[in-house]
Structures are given as structure tokens and as C-alpha cells.
Amino acid sequence: MPDVSFITVVPRVRDLTAYADTAMSVIRRTDAADLDGVLIFTGSGAVLDPWILATAAAAGTTRLSPLVAVNPVYQHPFTAARMVASLGLLYQRRIDLNLITGTAVSDLDALGDRLDHDDRYARLAEYVEIMMGVLGSRRPFSFDGRFYQVSRLQLTPGLPAHLLPRLFVAGQSPAAREVAERVGATSIQMLTAARRDADAAPPGALNFGLLTRATAEETERAAEARFPADPDGAKITAVTMANTDSVWKQRLFAEAEAGHGAVAVDPAYRLAPFRSGQADGPYLVADHAGAVDRLLAMIRSGVRTFVLDTPADDEDFHNLAQVVRTVRDRLRVDPTGGER
Fold first, then answer.
1. Which of 132, 171, 192, 321 is deepest in the core (most CB within 10 A)?
2. d(C-alpha 289, C-alpha 212), whole Å
3. Quick check: 273 and 209 in contact, CB under 8 A?
4. Does the pLDDT at position 131 exceed 80?
5. Cα dihedral 208, 167, 326, 31 sign
6. CA-CA-CA-CA torsion for 48, 52, 54, 56, nearest 10 degrees?
């Protein structure tokens, strides 16, 4: 059976006082559903420090590997390496890393970070090389680059190989793809209209929301309740596009504005939640059988990691767990994920 991971996401919430409870609820439900990890955001909108939340996730679950977002603008690479090593050794748990460069343009201005989009990715590559060099070396590590210079850094004791993090790079620009190739990371791509079908799905990792119920009728009722029409939200999203240079956000927004994510094009592919600010990306809305078939089709095309934005209640997680369990059972019978 191929090594396929299913990772949920700690969602952004409008009521910031509820963030901590929501985060811990998602972490506990993800673990109970026998999924593999949980993505923890960083940045000004994350409320809780991602390393603190990763510590709580490792301490309070049985098997999850937290996927921690790391942005060079917030901490030195040696600090990140020490956090990965500390959590790994303390909990004997691998801590994976989602390597990002983006945050709101206003946040970059507030932090005094004047690098342009591509230079932030160039800095990220050096950042990862230092971090992984320190984690993987038993000798003092030195580096002389454009953005960082370090001399004889060392972590003692070193991190065992089985606890070294998996690396993911979020982004769809040429600069992001170049960094992923340079550091040996898996590129996380957003599911778009062009990639919703199996033949177009890229290898590596895909990020999207999944809302599923046993039948098509139940699924549609759940979607209508979860994502009601919100014209004001759409206006707010349009305004926020001026505060980001994220390539994937701009592409998704253009796609949503052009109507390519409309139900009439593909009943399962929904951009309305993203356009109205109710989700961070597109959603697949499909009954159990349809969701299983689509996930298997993506696996056949080479996808090995699914980062799934799923709303945080018991019913959603129960249905997601059923779909994932069926996918895994089908892969045990046919590791290629072939058609029934």
C-alpha cells in the first residue's frame, strides 16, 4: 500500500477568543479519527504560537505528527531546528514542517521585511539548508550565504534519522517550486479547477477542503448549512487581495471571480466558500462514494499527502474518517488505487 497521509488543518476562526478551544478540538478529533497529522498555521492571525500548539498536540495525542508552519520572518533557523529537535526528543514524535514565506503585506511592513516575493523564497532556501544541516549533522555546521551566515552551530544530542522532519513548501509560483526542488521538499498545491480531475492532479501534496456525507442529498444540505451565501464576505475577500502577493490566492480569486468554480461547472468543486471568506481554499463537496473515488484518482496520479480543511465538529470528522478508512481499505486490496 502506498504511504499516503491525511492531515487536517487548525482553522482560522472569526471569534479569536474561541481559537484555542477550536484548535484543541481539531487536534483531538484528528487523533481519534486515526488521521496522520494536523497543520498548524503561523502569523499574526494564528493567535497561538505554532510551537506551543505543536507541543500541546504532541503531548495530548497518541500518534499525530504536527505539521508546523515556519516562516523565516519570525525566527532564526537555529531556533526552528532546536524546536524540532526538542519536541522530537521529548515526545519521540516526528515534527513536520510547512515552509512558507507569505503573510499579509501589512505584516511584512510592520516587521520591516522589505524583500520582494522571489527573494523571500531565496531566503527560505538558505533557511532550510541551515536548519536541516544543523539537525542532520553530528559535527559543527557552518554556512555562508546571501541572507544567513552561521559558524560552527551544533545541536547536542543530534536528532535520530527517524525523527527528522518531512518538509513541505506551500506555494504555486516558480520561485516556490524552485525552492522545493532545491531542498528536497514536497510542494503543497491548492486544488484548482484545472486539477480537480485525476489526470491533472500534481504529484506530492494537495490542499483543499472536504465536506462529505453518506448520500448526495445529505451532503448538499450540509454544504448549504455550512456555507450560506455571504455577499459581504465576498466584498471583504476582494479587498484583502490588495494585501497579499500570494500567487495561489490571486489565482484562486481570479478563478472564483470568473465563475470557474461554480456548481454548474462541477457540482463537487466549490470556490464559493473561499470567495466569501468562509474557507482558506476550494472545497470538494461529495458523498462518501464520490469522495473516495476522487481521492483514489488523485492517489493514482501521484498525490501522497492530503491537507484537508474540514470544519470542526463530530459529524464532519465522523464522515471524513469513514471516507479515509474506505480509501485505505481499497488501497490494501489494490495498492495502485485502481478503478473498481
1. 171
2. 9
3. yes
4. yes
5. negative
6. -100
pLDDT digits (tens, 9 = 90+) for 13-41: 778 888 899 999 999 999 999 999 999 99
Contact 302, 204 (CB under 8 A): yes
pTM for this one? 0.87
Give the integer Cα–Cα distance in Å for 5 and 123: 28
Alpha helices in the chain (DSSP H): 19-32, 50-60, 77-91, 105-111, 117-136, 174-183, 216-226, 231-240, 247-258, 272-275, 288-300, 314-333
Is the pLDDT at 196 greater than 50, yes or no? no
Give the angle 338-188-262 at the CA atoms, nearest 5°: 75
Joined grid coordinates for residue 298? 488523485
| Residue with the three cell numbers 520582494 | 116
Omega cis (within 30) before 273: no
Q: What is the dihedral of CA 60, 19, 261, 255, to 10 degrees?
A: -110
Q: Give residue for cell 464520490.
A: 290
Torsion of CA 102, 206, 10, 316, to 10 degrees: 150
Task: Look at strands 303-309 and 149-153 and give their pairing.
Answer: unpaired
